[in-house]
Structure formats: C-alpha cells, structure tokens
Write a structure and sequence with these properties.
Helix content: over 70%
Strand content: under 5%
Transmembrane segments: 6-22, 43-65, 71-91
Radius of gyration: 16 Å
Keywords: Membrane, Transmembrane, Transmembrane helix
Largest sheet: none
Length: 102
C-alpha cells in the first residue's frame, strides 16, 4: 500500500512541478543568466520521461502493480501517460515564445 502512495505522490508532484515552471513566468533573461534554473528545468524534463516510461511499463507489461488485480492503477497509468505528453510539450515550450519576439 505504501508503494502505491509513493507512486501517486511522485506522479502528481511531477505534474505540480511542471505547472510551477509554466506559471512562474520566468523571463528570457532568467533562462539565459541562471544556470541553476536551466538545469532544474532539464532535470524536470528527464524526470518526466522517466516517469512516462514507468507508467508505460505499468500499462503494457506484467509487474508488481498489475499482479494486485487492480485495473484502476492501469487506468491511472494511462491517464498519466497522456498527461505527461502534454506536460513535456508544455515544459519544453517555455523558452520558445521568446524567439517570436523582435
């Protein structure tokens, strides 16, 4: 039961962290001058890819979670895969709006 709590906590915390990066309204100067901010964002994107792989393995393979006979975990893993697709696009798009400005 504890492992399921950790699974959901980290999945939702990852979505919240990406929401923070999107809503913090960092400027172009912040991303160019602050190396810690750039690396934090890169680590967040790598973390999202890692969790998307974990959710994919839960959906498509037999493992610890699917042996429980609980299909809600598979359904939530499918939801998180779809959510992470949008979150990665959202997190990687953060610096692109600055390229359109003249």
């Amino acid at each position: 039961m504890f492992i399921i709590f950790i699974y959901y906590f980290l999945s939702i915390a990852t979505l919240c962290a990406c929401y923070y990066f999107r809503r913090a309204r960092f400027t172009e100067k912040d991303y160019k001058c602050n190396k810690l901010l750039r690396w934090t964002r890169r680590i967040l994107i790598i973390w999202i890819y890692l969790f998307a792989a974990i959710h994919g393995s839960i959906c498509f393979r037999e493992n610890l979670f699917t042996d429980i006979d609980n299909y809600y975990i598979r359904a939530s893993a499918g939801f998180f895969i779809v959510a992470y697709i949008f979150v990665v696009l959202w997190a990687e798009e953060i610096t692109h709006p600055f390229n359109d400005k003249k």
